[in-house]
Amino acid sequence: MIRLVLDFIIVIFVIMIGISSIKIIKQATVGIVERLGKYHKTAEQGINVIIPFIDQFRTVIDLREQVVDFPPQPVITKDNVTMMIDTVVYYQVTDPFKYTYEIASPILAIENLTATTLRNIVGDLELDETLTSRDLVNTKLRAILDEATDKWGIKVNRVELKNILPPQDIQNAMEKQMRAEREKREAILRAEGQKTAAILEAEGAKQSAILNAEAAREAAIREAEGMRQAKILEAEGEAQAILSVQKAFADSLVMLREANADNKVLALKSLEAIKQLSDGQATKLVIPSDLAGLGGVFAALKEAVTDAAPDDKTSKS
Predict the structure, then answer these.
(1) How far is residue 303's CA from residue 292's CA, in Å, rounded to a whole number?
(2) Which tens digits make up the pLDDT trace of 46-57?
(3) Contact status, residue 61 vs residue 41, Cβ threshold 8 Å
(4) In terms of DSSP bridges, do strands 73-76 and 55-62 run parallel, antiparallel, or are they unpaired?
(5) 314 — pLDDT class (breaks 50, 70, 90)
(6) Which of 15, 130, 188, 256 could disulfide-link to 261, CB 3.0 to 4.6 Å?
(7) Are 77 and 130 in contact (CB under 8 A)?
């Protein structure tokens, strides 16, 4: 019975030793294996077998990128303004051996290195430059930290200034300055708007005046053209009337010649011509220079009237 119990204990002990000799390493992690207190190997992901009581895992290191948010640190600028700055550091373990054996407290070392480096960088900048040059500070800080932590098996991927907190009086002054700057920009924008509106209004008035002048000129040109056309038509009408009168007169002469008219009829026609001349709008009247001829005309007219009188009486009887 006692032997069975001992065998059972031995089996349990062997199983426990076998279980303890098997170590499973998760994804994105590695283990540091020491043999008799000395570094032996780096256990990769998966199942790893070690010798019990001889080999042991000192630590398991996470190879993923880590984020550390450090508390605010007092920093003095070049113009003697004390402000509180807290930083966020993104780092990743690249060499597990160095990370384990080259540095005792890597996170504390990174925090202190960040604080001292930040003081050196900000100490060369004034307050306004510090507030407006975050990218510059981040770049310099990351480069210095990455170089310093390389021998620790750590790579600093990114450093960010999370908050920059100046003293309260400086914050109040900055708020007043920003308010004044906003009011200044508002006044400038309002003035620019009024200026643009005035320019557009003047430009519109200018265009309106130009269009009105062009319309008046066009109207005057058309009116003058209309008057010219009217005068041309009037002159053409007068010319046509004169031609018609001349043609009628010529036709009458032809008819008189064809009818073998005597001197009395010609004299009567001359008198009618003189009457027509006197009825015209001319201010001068042309009278034949031969008064005897004019007297002959009147004598012929008298004889024509005398001859016409007996004819009238005969017709009445």
Answers:
(1) 16
(2) 888 888 888 888
(3) no
(4) unpaired
(5) very low
(6) 256
(7) yes
